[in-house]
Amino acid sequence: MIVVVVVVVVVVVVVLIVVVIVLVNCHVEIVAVVNDAVGTLMSAAHGDRNCEIGLILGTGCNACYMEGLDNVGTWTHGDDQDHHPRQVIINTEWGAFGDNGCLDFVRTEFDQELDTFSINPGKQIMEKMISGMYIGEIVRLVLVRLNHENLLFTSVDRDCNLFERGRFYTKYVSEIESDTDEFFRNTKQVLDELHVENYTIEDCKVVKYVCTLVSARAAFLAAAGEKLFDCFLSYAVLDCIKASF
After folding, report:
1. Residue 191's pLDDT is what?
2. DSSP alpha helix (H) spans, the chain
3. Can you tell me the distance from the alpha carbon of 203 to that of 198, in angstroms, rounded to the nearest whole number?
4. How far is CA 41 from the centre of its chain?
5. Rounded to the nearest 5 degrees, what angle is found at the Cα of 145, between the Cα atoms of 204 and 105?
6. Which of 9, 76, 162, 234 is in the most buried spot, having the most CB atoms within 10 Å?
7. Which residues belong to any copy of the Hexokinase C-terminal domain (predicted)?
8. pTM of the prediction?
9. What Cα–Cα distance (Å) separates residue 32 from each residue in 38, 77, 219?
10. Is residue 152 within 8 Å of residue 146, measured between CB atoms?
């Protein structure tokens, strides 16, 4: 359903752009098609030439960075090198980082279950650990496991929405984390929407703690990825990697 909605939105946007171009009689030449990460970097660099990283952290995640042309082995220079740019934008598709198993040492049973029941098992591993499309489901899986261990919602009806895949939205994580007092108003509202009954204040504390852990891990992974780009740009990758551990 999500994929269909995204495709429909893209088609509608393209049609609207074409209609506007025709109506105002513009002569437009399309010279490139870029994704949101590259577009973000280009738009920011237009106003600040020191901007060298484009980062998307939303429903999905991706990043790109500026690279010296001499370091891009796939670029064919041709005869007239003076007309080539000195830098190019590298789109990393970093959401796929970990598809080769290199992140298995930090993945949990909840990450593995989420991946198994996703529309693309084994793909976009890093994205599934940090992006908005998946964070809510990770929290839900943790809460369900705690319930099965009789550590949370001990008298809950297991026919409620908490036990249905995809029903714990990522927006719930932000709402729950915004609770700042002992009344847990937002947490209670979320639990009510999920039709969780007979919860206690201790249950609310645990739910908020789980949300905090999952979102903090996502932030740490995103920060680690951004730090690696800093390393590429400073040409001190090994030193940066050592400093991260």
Report:
1. 97
2. 2-23, 36-47, 109-116, 127-130, 135-148, 170-177, 185-193, 201-234, 237-243
3. 10
4. 17
5. 110
6. 162
7. 52-225
8. 0.81
9. 11, 19, 32
10. yes
